[in-house]
Amino acid sequence: MKKFRITELLISIVSAELVGAVSALLSGGEFRGYFETLNKPPLSPPAWVFPVVWATLYALMGYSAYLIYLSDNRGRSRALGVYISQLAANFLWSPVFFGKMSFIGGIVIIAALDILVAVMMILFYRIRKKAAIMNIPYLTWCLYATYLTVGTYILNR
pLDDT by residue (tens digit) across 65-84? Predict the structure, then answer.
């Protein structure tokens, strides 16, 4: 087990947060206006909820990945590889859905993200249960985002 270092923990959290920030920037920056023009499915939250929730989830993701990084478990590299893959899928969703205004592309990406997050959680659980449990809100939110993405597609095609 590696020694805990606050600097490395902060790097892990900030790196995850940057994924969301850069993704939002690449989405064109005007997605809030575009979001407001869309017909949304029932139970859709107001726009201000999304950045608050995502900032929290990215922090949890970064912290959980750091817990895996600290481990000497031989499955660590694979688990962190899946973590990076799900971050990449997460990164792509906003530029595709909002930037390219592609509902189908958004659905494909969010479905892949759901699977990758579930696999990541399984791999994390095998190494450190706490790291997996920390991602339950993330998986829950991704599934909710899938509902919103599909519902938005249906209501706006």
Answer: 999 999 999 999 999 999 99
CA distance 102 to 151: 14
Residue with token string 């399984």: 122
User: Do 63 and 134 meet the contact criterion of CB atoms below 8 Å apart?
Assistant: yes
What Å distances lie between residue 56 and 1, 37, 62, 80, CA to CA?
Answer: 27, 26, 10, 20
Domain 6-48+55-156: give its CATH superfamily.
TspO/MBR protein (1.20.1260.100)
Q: Cα–Cα distance between 102 and 94 in angstroms, integer? A: 10
- For residue 6, pLDDT over 70 is answered with yes
What ranges do the domains of the chain cover? 6-48+55-156
Q: Is 16 exposed, middle or buried (0-12, 13-18, 19+ CB in 10 A)?
A: buried
pLDDT digits (tens, 9 = 90+) for 86-113: 999 999 999 999 989 999 999 999 999 9
